[in-house]
Design a protein that fits this description.
Chain A is an all-alpha fold. Chain A contains 13 helices and no strands. Chain B is mostly helical. Classes of the chains: A mainly alpha (about 300), B mainly alpha (about 325).
Amino acid sequence: MLRFIASRLLQGLFVLFALYTITFFLAKAMPGEPFTTEKNLSEESKAYQRALYGLDKPLLHQYLIYPKNIITEGSLAVSTSKGRPVKDIISQSFKVSVILGLSALGIAICIGVPIGVISAVRRNSWVDWGTMAIAMIGICVPAFTIGPLLQIFIAANLPGIKVAGWGDPQDILLPAITLGLSTAAYLARLTRGGMLEILSQDFIRTAHAKGIPASKVITRHALRGGILPSVAFIGPAFAALISGSFIVETIFQVPGMGQHFVNAVISRDEFLLLGVALFFGFLIVIMNLAADILTGILDPRVRITGSSPK
Amino acid sequence: MNSSTQDTKSAEGQHDYSLLQAERGSSLWRDAWLRMGKNKVAIVSLIVFIITCLLCFGFAWFCKDPIQQNLANKFAAPSGEHWLGTDAMGRDLFSRILYGGQVSILVGLVATFVAVTIGVTYGAISGFYGGRIDAIMMRTVDTLLSIPFLMVVIVLQAVLSEWSTTTSKWIVENWGWNKEFTNRATNVLPLFFALGLFGWLTLARIVRAQVLSLKEREFVEAATSLGLSRLRVLFRHIIPNTLGPTVVYATLTVPGFIMYEATLSYLGLGVESPNSSWGILIKEGANYLETNPQLLILPGILFSLTLFALNFLGDGLRDALDVRASKD
């Protein structure tokens, strides 16, 4: 298990490096330049700014100095559009993003997994059809349609829930629901598929034959295997939630990291861009690792071979 | 070799030949089509998608100009002239939805085509050649898969869209094309590539897994022993047999890409107003939700309906072609 984790961590490091390389060269390829403001800066002051941020150095030097500074000084450089260290910007907003992402994931799991189990157990009944149709709505209606509709119908009618903003604990509710709904739908479909496969297997029949109550067969025997596809999906799902949070943050004016990323692209702020991208990448690597370990705990086959069963 | 074995051989040969004939009468695709026919949801979805396409790509040309503003007539109620009323700029909502559909559906289809082309070739080569090539190619895919897709697309889109503006200007100046048309076309081009360039990863893995099992089969051995070159075996005999899963996955990718297009446009990084796309329309509609909810809801309905249809169609194809459920 330790070797497994170590190899995954090494792979994660490699992923981060690849992400850095892609983002770095794409950021360099972006047209326009960082110091374009409303007031036209003179060429000299622009050149001064570039030198100040080290943007006048050769490309290869810039490419190598950034990761070196992360490792030796733990510094993520200074944002060219905000003039503040990227680390500060991230440490202020990342808590918001993680809280939002995790509560959305929590909502998704609490809704998606039970629905998937129920519709698999009641296969081809109206319960199955109904819940799967609702799941499809969750997948097909985009967050930027659901979000505004929730604002109009829930926030406007329920006291205590604001249309937008971030501060009170209940402000999490609407953004997290908007964000988590499509993940819940995917989880429901995956759980249903996984459960259907497990429920048709011999050991389930054996369990029934031994006289174990049906509810216990489902929760103790079937769920453990049936939930595997969903567990494997949680890592990518968290990535999707983070990407999706750009939209939700815009709709509900949540001060998370997504807005910084979009702004960084628009204002050609490459250090902020790299910082946020790498931080997201880091979170995703960690979540993928967690999902892998969880799969290993649930599925003894993985522990032996070190790879997920195909 | 004595004559008796030759006899059985020719008899076997004939027998095989007749089997081939019988199989041709009911191929994988024909079987699949018949099974699809029994799946009412999939058939209805197919019809809905075809109607949407006909409306957007056929009927739209007979509608009003989607960019023509009329500030004196904004937020008009539906009437004989404007079937679904007008938006905040007095533009005809019905034709904006149809023209928006052109962009959204085209992005979905073309980006999927790009992704399928790359993914099938990559996966097939990786699986077919195996060994170290396979290991390197698949580690690359694994690495790219862990990268936040939307973020890279956003940055890539920023790079490409500036490039598309210059291209558009250049075409208008040098080739004398219609400016509006050129703008509309070049505005969408970067999206095709940005999405297609990163959307092939999962497909490459699916195709590779298929190729790995296919290349051990007898018919491949037969083709090789007949003296066909490796590339010909790969492209004529192996890749066509991976088409089932590819078609299923591609059908399920189209709605995903349509969603990405809408997301990017919503963030102001995709198609730009006054050009229309479903993402743009929903974004514009959200601004007037309290007073004129139809501006959000109507494009939202057609958008969701199309995604519904494509997803159910993909599910139906999956059942019909008997492809094991993929992970997404």
